[in-house]
Amino acid sequence: AMLRLRLLTWDVKDTLLRLRQPVGHSYAAEARAHGIRVQAEALSRSFREAYGAQRLRFPNYGQGRGLSSRQWWVDVVKQTFRLSGVQDESVLTAMAENLYQDYCSTHNWEALPGASETLSQCRRRGFRMGVVSNFDNRLENILCQCDLRHHFDFVLTSEAAGCAKPDGRIFEQALRLGGVLARQAAHVGDDYSRDYRAARAVGMHSFLLRAAGQGEEPEVPPEHLLPTLSHLLGLIEK
Q1: Chain centre distance of CA 75
Q2: Which structural domain range is residue 159 located in?
Q3: Residue 94 burial by CB count (10 A; 0-12/13-18/19+): exposed, middle or buried?
Q4: Domain count of the fold of the chain
Q5: What pLDDT is recorded for position 172?
Q6: Which member of 40, 72, 98, 195 lies 3.0 to 4.6 Å from 191 by CB, making a disulfide possible if both were Cys?
Q7: Known NCBIfam families for this protein (predicted)?
Q8: pTM of the model
């Protein structure tokens, strides 16, 4: 039976947009611009450590802890460089400000293959469309810069929602914004627990974007798996 869907919600990172290069490469280029040589691989490792620690200490960009998401990110960038041996505070500040801006544009983000076409087709079929993403408030601007914002009726970030996937409340907010019941909506994302399982837990349908060769999740029936975004409409309209 064809799903009676009225709303499609979308994850962003690694579903619609991806980084053009690993974080360490962007950070190393920024360091070079300040005359500092640091290995990209070392910076990637330092970034994972700094980002992981910051997320544990201040979940969801420091929501409710008196921290702006901008300050949250500036601290992560500075700590990344400190862990890689850069100590000059004025240089750390300059690099952090620059990188915060750089990650707000097509300088670092690109659309995944088929993203724009699939969103256009879904729009033409008359679906309401929304973004549900564990992202900070730069997302609106990033989607505009990458020419995807016009596909969506709303963009809901974890920063704006005050909670992050897999918390069901962010999906419930999205359903209210879309004006539909859970069973009239489907979520599309690349993460098994934060996207696929979390949306199903509130009664939505969901589809898991899964590139060939990625680990198999036993509970995902094949009709919920998307090898690429362009498979979506075929599955919905079966």
Answers
A1: 20
A2: 7-16+112-234
A3: middle
A4: 2
A5: 98
A6: 195
A7: DREG-2, HAD-SF-IA-v1, HAD-SF-IA-v3
A8: 0.94
